[in-house]
Write a structure and sequence with these properties.
With 442 residues, this protein is of the alpha/beta class. The chain is 37% helix and 18% strand. The protein has 15 helices and 17 strands. The strands form 4 sheets. An 8-stranded mixed β-sheet has the order 8-9-7-12-6-13-14-17, sandwiched between helices. Strands 3-2-1-5-4 form a 5-stranded mixed β-sheet. A hairpin with a 6-residue loop joins strand 8 (204-208) and strand 9 (215-219). Helix 5 (140-152) crosses helix 15. It is globular, with a radius of gyration of 24 Å.
Length: 442
């Protein structure tokens, strides 16, 4: 009996006798229960293109191959019978099937969560930099707060947006709780959903550099705690798609709108932010999918050197590797951060980290061979290439940097030991910013 992991290969094999002439843009669609249908491209076909006999035979072959993953109704659906066939045949996030059978038909995954991991980031904002980790506890939020302060010291206007909605924290490293704005990102998303687009107090100035006049602004996940203010009832309402003025908005659209509103609020009260730091939720959650794959122009990927973490990132690399355009974009936009590098034996640790990171992310690199000839234009850097996305920017582990609050964070920021721990990380990020990669000028 076919299992979920075997279905794609079996389905491809079942249509192996069909060629590009018969298939065109045909697309397998896997629904939320895992059952598979083939939307066959019969658009614009003239008489004799796809016969009823061919459709019936293909339906029979697929049903036999899919087993329990065959739907109760027809397996093969002509695209011409659909109201909006291009929403499937030309959908964003189409995946390439395993190289079994024809290998030419795309797949569309209909999922309840995680769909944005498959979507190429057409709406990515170059000045938006994400901080992401597969697991928590790796110092991601602390590094984001640190980077914001360092960049303000270079005269930049930095907005930090706390998108770790279930476990917010970066805002409290930068601002006293009493100085938080009255509303947060979740409030912005909830109010927008009902058309209440009046200006909300969603950002607060957390720091002004005395020498450079650089600024750090924060947009917290939730507003300032006070009597009558609720958070959980709002959080429970932000993940569903909505429709505004007849236009459907996905969760990623809603996040983008909330961040854009915070950017506009800073612009209105001060100036255009030079850098927007998005502190994402850890794991494979929809927040991370939206931020990393769709919205951020650059993503700093934080990691320790553990097997479980590499398996998690390997799942992402495998998914991105099945979409050539998405793989090309993501390898240009991610940079690993070894955020728990030991101060003893660090060189050996980073060398091992780079090797395991390369093994993980090589799924989104080009194959070294093009046919039988070596392809000189293929992008596949070696493990020790310091400019490659898999090669890490190190942050030396310092136990004093764990479980920080605002006072202890500000004290650490003045500590020479902590400054040394972050020095290579901040320099590496500044190189990305100064190279023009972040603002799209390169």
């Amino acid at each position: 009996m076919a299992t979920f992991d075997e279905v794609a290969g079996l389905a491809n094999s079942a249509i192996a006798t069909l060629g590009d002439k018969e298939l065109g843009r045909s697309t397998f669609v896997r629904d939320v229960s895992g059952r598979v249908r083939l939307v066959i491209d019969d658009l614009g076909r003239r008489a004799g293109g796809l016969s009823q006999e061919l459709l019936a035979a293909t339906d029979e072959n697929l049903r036999a191959a899919l087993g329990s993953y065959a739907p109760s109704g027809p397996v093969v659906i002509p695209a011409s019978s659909l109201i909006e066939p291009t929403q499937i045949l030309d959908a964003p996030g189409l995946l390439v099937t395993p190289s079994v059978g024809t290998g030419s038909v795309k797949w569309l995954e209909r999922t309840i969560t995680g769909a944005d991991w498959h979507v190429e980031g057409q709406s990515a904002h170059q000045k938006w930099m994400a901080l992401y980790s597969f697991k928590g506890g790796v110092g991601r939020s602390t590094a984001g707060a640190w980077l914001a302060r360092v960049e303000s010291g270079r005269g930049k206007c930095v907005l930090v947006v706390d998108l770790d909605l279930e476990s917010p924290g970066v805002s409290n490293l930068l601002s006293h709780v009493g100085d938080l704005p009255s509303h947060g990102v979740v409030d912005q998303m909830v109010e927008t959903a009902v058309g209440n687009v009046e200006e909300l107090d969603t950002v607060a100035l957390a720091h002004i550099d005395d020498l450079t006049a650089g600024e750090v602004w924060i947009a917290p996940a939730q507003g300032r705690p006070r009597e009558g203010y609720t958070f959980l009832p709002k959080l429970n309402r932000v993940y569903s798609p909505i429709t505004i003025d007849g236009r459907p908005l996905t969760f990623a659209d809603r996040v983008e709108s909330a961040v854009s509103a915070s950017v506009e609020a800073v612009r209105r009260r001060s100036r255009e932010p030079d850098l927007v730091l998005l502190d994402s939720r850890a794991g494979l959650h929809d927040i991370a999918a939206a931020v990393v794959t769709r919205l951020a122009g650059t993503t700093l990927v934080f990691s320790g050197d553990s097997e479980a973490t590499w398996i998690g990132y390997g799942n992402l690399a495998s998914e991105w590797g099945s979409n050539a355009a998405l793989a090309t974009r993501m390898r240009s936009n991610i940079k690993m951060v070894a955020s728990l590098a030991p101060d003893v034996g660090e060189e050996a640790y980073l060398a091992r980290f780079a090797e395991r990171s390369y093994a993980c992310w090589s799924s989104i690199y080009d194959d070294l061979q093009a046919g039988d000839a070596y392809d000189e234009d293929a992008y596949n850097p070696p493990p020790n290439d310091t400019s490659a996305p898999h090669y890490p920017l190190p942050i030396t582990f310092d136990p004093t940097l764990r479980h920080l609050e605002r006072a202890s964070f500000l004290a650490a920021f003045e500590s020479r030991v902590a400054q040394a721990a972050f020095q290579r990380f901040t320099q590496g990020v500044q190189d990305i910013i100064d190279s023009g990669e972040l603002d799209g000028t390169r």
